[in-house]
Write a structure and sequence with these properties.
alpha/beta; Beta Polymerase, domain 2; 20% helix; two-stranded parallel ribbon; 2 helices
Length: 112
């Protein structure tokens, strides 16, 4: 991971260590940002590269990080809309979102 940097400017992206990820997301929330989406893809060493997109006043910002031990802190306590996004990524990439209240697989209506 790259060294610690200030939060991304409007339209920019910041790479952060998994240990600093939750604090960086909390700073964006304090600035009025909302979570828009999460992008995940396999990375080296069996980990998963993650890119979180946030919107504030019509401007997109991104935080890039990766799992550590196939785990990452959940954003659920900061952004309730991360529920579906993290559950989907958990199922598709076997990521453990630490602190997420319910990582049960999503089901289609009528599915048991």
């Amino acid at each position: 991971m790259e060294p610690e940097e200030p939060l991304p400017e409007a339209g920019a992206e910041k790479t952060c260590d998994p240990a600093d990820f939750l604090a960086a997301a909390a700073s964006l929330k304090r600035e009025g940002a909302v979570l828009s989406s999460i992008c995940a893809c396999p990375d080296e060493g069996g980990e998963v590269a993650l890119r979180y997109f946030f919107e504030a006043a019509g401007v997109l910002r991104a935080l890039r990080t990766r799992t550590s031990g196939r785990s990452i802190d959940s954003l659920f306590s900061l952004f309730a809309n991360s529920d579906f996004l993290e559950r989907e990524a958990s199922k598709l990439f076997r990521i453990k979102f630490l602190g997420h209240p319910n990582l049960a697989a999503l089901k289609k209506p009528g599915q048991t």
